[in-house]
Amino acid sequence: MAETDSDRTSQAPQRGFEAFKQHCIAKKLDVLLWTTRFCTMFFTFMYIIPIFGNPYNSYYKALFANGATSAIRLHQRLPTVSFTREYLTSLLLEDSFHYLLYSLIFLYVSPVTLTLLPIFLFSMIHFASYSLTLLDTLGQNSWWGARLLISLIEFQSRNILRLIAFSEIILMPFTIILILVGRAGLLTPFIYYHFLSMRYKSMRNPYTRNVFHELRVTTDALAAKPGTPAMISNILRSIVDFVVKLSPARQQQPGAAQ
Fold first, then answer.
1. Fewer CB in a 10 Å sphere around the end CB: N or C, the chain?
2. What's the whole-model pTM score?
3. For residues 80 and 90, what is the distance between their CA atoms, to the nearest angstrom?
4. Which of 105, 116, 106, 111 is nearest to 41 (CA)?
5. Which letter does DSSP use for residue 70 in this model?
6. How far is CA 230 from CA 130, 215, 227, 244, in A?
7. What is the number of other CB atoms lying within 10 angstroms of the CB of residue 103?
């Protein structure tokens, strides 16, 4: 039997404001994540460019918004709480748990712009991705300027993720500096080290691990250059050896590609 025009119309996905409204009702948590990610970006802007309000309040609101995003995402990934070793292992492997811990770490540290960079960039990538889904429900030709901006963000997503990983690594020695200038507590570097260890062992996001490797290769190459003074070469090799000793062993999951 030939398919009629009315059949094809009924099978085609609906577009427009009504479809947008139905999507928001059906995907409440995803839309809530989209909102909290927007809040993270908004409050980051308000901290860097304080048009109105207290910039320090905006700093902590950005961390709170990121913590909310991480908690909601963690609920999606592990909806059933269980007081077992297996559940704890799964929890520690989740990227959303890592960044929930990240927010908690820096809620007790004086405002530092660099700490907002990773959460802003993560929020931007995921906000852009889901914005495209929302725009599709409104129609193919809606907000072409926003679609172009989203395409640029997605095109640069690998470079953005590498920048996030680099920021995570740089923040480790930076937390020690914060102690010396009286802007962080003594436990901050130790807790942050555990955060960075979890990022290094992440099964879903290899960028922190890859950037560590790239930095090691670059440092070894610099230390091996004939023009590098012997003292500098020794210092660089000592730093590499120290970091290698601190690097955690990766936990391999059954069937995991990495």
1. N
2. 0.85
3. 12
4. 116
5. H
6. 52, 20, 9, 21
7. 22
pLDDT above 80 for 211:
yes
HEC states along 101-170?
Answer: HHHHHHCCCCCCHHHHHHHHHHHHHHHHHHHHHHHHHHCCCCCHHHHHHHHHHHHCHHHHHHHHHHHHHH
pLDDT band at 1 (very low <50, low <70, confident <90, very high): very low
pLDDT confidence of residue 78: 87
Residue 7: band (very low, low, confident or very high) from pLDDT cuts 50, 70, 90:
very low
Report the Cα 152 to chain-centroid distance in Å. 18
Tokens at 163, concatenated: 């920048």
Q: What tokens does 12 get?
A: 């085609």
Q: What angle do CA 209, 214, 215 make, to 5 degrees?
A: 100
Of the candidates 248, 195, 225, the one whose C-alpha atom is nearest the C-alpha of residue 70 is 195
CB atoms under 10 Å from CB of 242, counted, come to 10
Contacts of 101 (CB under 8 A, 6+ apart): 191, 194, 195, 198
Which phi and psi angles does 87 have, rounded to 5°? -65, -45
DSSP annotation string for 170-219: HHHHHHHHHHHTTSS-TTHHHHHHHHHHHHHT-SS--HHHHHHHHHHHHH
Supply 76's token pair: 């999606």
Write the CB contacts of 76 (distance below 8 Å, at least 6 apart in sequence).
29
Contact between 124 and 159 (Cβ < 8 Å): no
pLDDT, tens only, 43-78: 999 999 988 888 999 999 999 999 999 999 999 988
pLDDT of residue 71: 95
